[in-house]
Amino acid sequence: MENACCIVGLGAISSIGLDVEENYESLQSLQSGISYPEFLQTLHKTDLPVCEIKKSDAELAALCKMPLGLPRTVYLSAIAVQQTLAVIANHDMSKLRIGFISGNTIGGMDRSEYFFTDYLQNQSQGQLQDIRYHECGSITELVAKHFGIKHFVTTINTACSSSANAMIHASRLLKNNKLDIVIAGGADALCRFTLNGFNTLMILDSEPSKPFDENRKGLNLGEGAAYLMLTSEAIRSEYNLHKYATLSGYANANDAFHQTASSAEGNGNYQAMKEALAMTGLTTSDIHYINAHGTGTGNNDASEGIAIQRLFGENIPPVSSTKANTGHTLGACGALEAVYACLGLRDQVIFPNLRFETQMKDLHFSPDTKWQATKNMQHIMSNSFGFGGNCTSLIFSKDS
Amino acid sequence: MGVYIQGIGNISAQIFDPRSQDFTLHAGHGNRLICIEPDYKDMIPPMQLRRMSKIVRMGIACAKAAMQDAGIVKPDTISLGTAYGCLADTEFFLQKLITQDESMLTPTAFIQSTHNTVSGQIALLLNCTGHNFTYVHRGHSFETTLQEAFMLTQENVNCNALIGGIDELTNNAFNIISRFGTYKKEDEHFNNEGKGCIAGEGANLFVVNAKDTKSSYAYCSDIHVCSTENIAEELDGFLHVNQLQASDIDTCLLGLNGDERYDTIIANNIRNVKNARTISFKKYCGEYPSSGAFAMALACKLLQSNTTPMNLQDLNAPLNDEPAQRVLIYNHYKNQYHSFILLNRL
């Protein structure tokens, strides 16, 4: 763990809060961001609840001082990056190599939907401004330019594990001394493309989702962005930056089972958790809390739960899914939950899993349902699994 | 420490056998180069093939070819770079969403529209449970997979990393990008002066590792993606770090794309590398964000060949058919993400 990266800055925006502390307070007061869409222009305004940030694009643009007419994901990303960068705002960082690694899954699709509506009528129609930032990379590029980050910029799209993988890549670049500071995380706004896409898969719950409940019916899509500032211990101490936690272990594995479904045994999930643990040199009993991927779909929660049982045996630490609060924020969820893990370590709390009622028959454990103050919590595991069999597990540690 | 290139799978606008001495490459006519796809029937079962979009079948075929070429049955890690992702399936689902007014939609195209479909499908087909990343960042998506391979093979010296760049250009994408004034006119070609480039697409996958073997194509000793506007200065720095003089480079593969707005910039930045022959690789693959992977395949082919065909070389630089010893790939995409890749003969 000597090489582990320090987390020195946090930023988050989701349907339960416009910044990190608002998110924390909503978790504490058992709030969820679930509602019917108001800003998303969809026909599903009364049948598919989502976790929408109740701000218009214009309001979001104002929050990050960016021009109007850009994809919504840009604004979410910029707002969270702005918060993350605040800790170094008063430092002269001109000598440092700063990188930006962001995950997102839909790029500028919300604007592309407008463009295509006109384009399909006539191929010379459609405002080019609406398709200009279609690529996932465009989102990252716009935000990097806005904040003047240029030493290294990249975008990862491994579906729902994108931002967790952004942190893995950040850590690898820091360990190899390619960069001094990395802002890593991800962003995704709601759009009709993903809402309808997930709806065709019949994995959206028409009610608020119930992760790890026997009667769970599916997930609620959400939107948001979250970033963590990672650096080496040497830079952290040189600039006297506060350390939230270290990213002490990580692993990415592939379930190699199905394009969208997880294997019944949770092979990829198991391998990711096991390898992340192996990197830390810890044992399962050292993990004090698991923030699960826990989408609320039949398949994910069974597969993830079984993988947790395989790895942890009879001694399963508290497990919960904060997606019951935030919805599934896709490209943002890994980083959003990483921010929560840092807050959990900071304040020694375990977050509750909302709306759990009935024990799952497939599992011998149930999720934690109460806000729990704890002591001596040293290590939190955070899981993110995605389409394409992509499974990532991260371990965050507090210095003893 | 760099990586050795052990296997190549290539689908491009060329019929391209990287191990052969045949260098018949065609610059083509018109403003768009389309991939010449192989007969997939020996590589992909027909039932699966029917459901695959072009980018997925190209990716899988190239993955298999690269592994066969490298003599391995399964890579340890998979990392692909694609700026556009699975455009055909994305467009299909988007079109249905709009024309059917968000109703009666089916999941197949949505499932396959995710950018990591190709890397996920390769993992599924090979039961490859290792590291699996997809970089989707504009003109250096492929270059990031190569940078990452340097680190992965250093972490684990036995790692066989499958990397590559892949982008498909659909008719809609071609039409829309044309409206931005990116491409030349329909009846023009690469050598027409003026604005605009030739559109392209392609899939170039590689097996790389940390071991020099008899069948290795070349040694990739360094890769650099520029972060400043001073590209020429960064090139000097890149050569210096690699303990090279400009005169040590005998062959440059340049990302000239026929658009005068950009080609003058490249020419200016490379001005200190005087003795090298130059090859404008985009004449053969067209312009697309992950075209750097095509350049690396061509560089590997040159580095195992006993000649450097004169007909590939640009006329305004030194011309000779000596075998290449040290190749510099200098690419950019729309004057962003200028990158250098250094490849050496073994």
Please outline the major beta sheet of chain B.
Answer: 10 strands, mixed
Number of beta strands of chain A = 14
Unreliable stretches of chain B: none
Taking strands numbered 1, 2, ... along the chain, how are they ordered across the largest sheet of chain A?
A: 5-4-6-7-1-8-14-13-9-10
Instruction: Look up the CATH topology of the largest domain in chain B.
Output: Peroxisomal Thiolase, Chain A, domain 1
Oligomer: heterodimer
Indicate the mean pLDDT of chain B.
96
How much helicity do the residues of chain B have? Answer: 25-40%
Question: How many DSSP-defined strands of chain B?
Answer: 10
CATH topological fold name of the largest domain in chain A: Peroxisomal Thiolase, Chain A, domain 1
Approximate strand percentage of chain A: 15-25%
Walk across the major sheet of chain B and give the strand order.
3-2-4-5-1-6-10-9-7-8
Shape estimate of chain A: globular
Question: Which class of the largest domain in chain B in CATH terms?
Answer: Alpha Beta
